[in-house]
Write a structure and sequence with these properties.
With about 260 residues, this protein is an alpha/beta fold. The chain is built from 9 helices and 9 strands.
Length: about 260
């Protein structure tokens, strides 16, 4: 898969803002046609116009609520005939605060989008693609239990472990499909606002995270961690006692 082939298609969920939008920009530069998926059609249409004008590519938009599993099945059915070579499961959101005080409805929707939709779309495309790359977007939070973001961190732990296990299976079976994981640390996006947290101003730009993600896809890196600082954090997380990690994570989220 190494290099991208112009005029082939890539699917990006959660494409209306943040990392998803920036990855769309990076792939458009490489002359890939795009299928952009999100709930906010107005933002998708604006991005479609921008990318088609600047890069002379084809862009298809799908306004879809991925918390509904029937919508995931329909999205796959409507896009598989485009023979996408890249599928990016980026849609997801979080909620900050004590577990017993947050919205239960929102937590259930989070599990649906962050876990069930990723699981279902990955399975559907693994079953129907002859070759390609699936990039599932996790988080550095997926490497540590995170008080005050318990459900979100657990959902991202699922994504990274799920993806790495399937990628290993694909390689052992000599399938021409890779299932990669993107695990960014703090990124300057709308995430904090959606999660009902306070923006701290920390983190890398979404555009930089997207560039690193696309390079990781080109190199078929099983685990993509944007930024040297986060790579160092990942290394030490494997060495520190869990009780230290819990205390650190609690204080970090408390500041938000």
């Amino acid at each position: 898969m190494g290099k991208f082939e112009p005029n082939t298609y890539a699917i990006i969920t959660g494409a209306s803002s943040g990392i998803g939008r920036e990855i769309a920009q990076e792939l458009a530069k490489k002359q890939l046609n795009l299928i952009l998926v999100a709930r906010r059609r107005d933002r998708l249409e604006a991005l479609k116009k921008k990318l088609e004008t600047e890069y002379s590519i084809k862009v298809i938009v799908k306004d879809v609520d991925l918390s509904v599993m029937e919508n995931c099945v329909r999205l796959h059915a409507e896009t598989i005939d485009y023979h996408p070579i890249i599928v990016i499961n980026n849609a997801g959101f979080g909620q900050i605060g004590p577990f017993d005080e947050g919205s239960l409805v929102k937590e259930q929707a989070m599990i649906a989008v962050n876990i069930s939709a990723v699981h279902l779309l990955t399975r559907l495309f693994v079953d129907t693609l002859s070759e390609g790359i699936i990039l599932n977007v996790s988080s550095m939070a997926g490497f540590l239990p995170t008080p005050l973001m318990a459900t979100y961190a657990a959902s991202k732990a699922f994504v990274v472990n799920f993806s790495r296990a399937i990628d290993f299976e694909m390689r052992r079976e000599k399938r021409r499909i890779r299932v990669l994981s993107l695990c960014p640390g703090p990124v300057k996006t709308e995430f904090g606002l959606v999660a009902h947290g306070r923006e701290t101003g920390r983190g890398i730009d979404a555009s930089r995270a997207a560039k690193i993600a696309v390079r990781g896809i080109e190199k078929e890196k099983a685990l993509i961690i944007p930024g040297i600082q986060m790579k160092v954090v990942h290394f030490f997380l494997r060495l520190l006692p869990t009780r230290w990690i819990l205390t650190f994570a609690y204080r970090l989220q408390k500041n938000k």
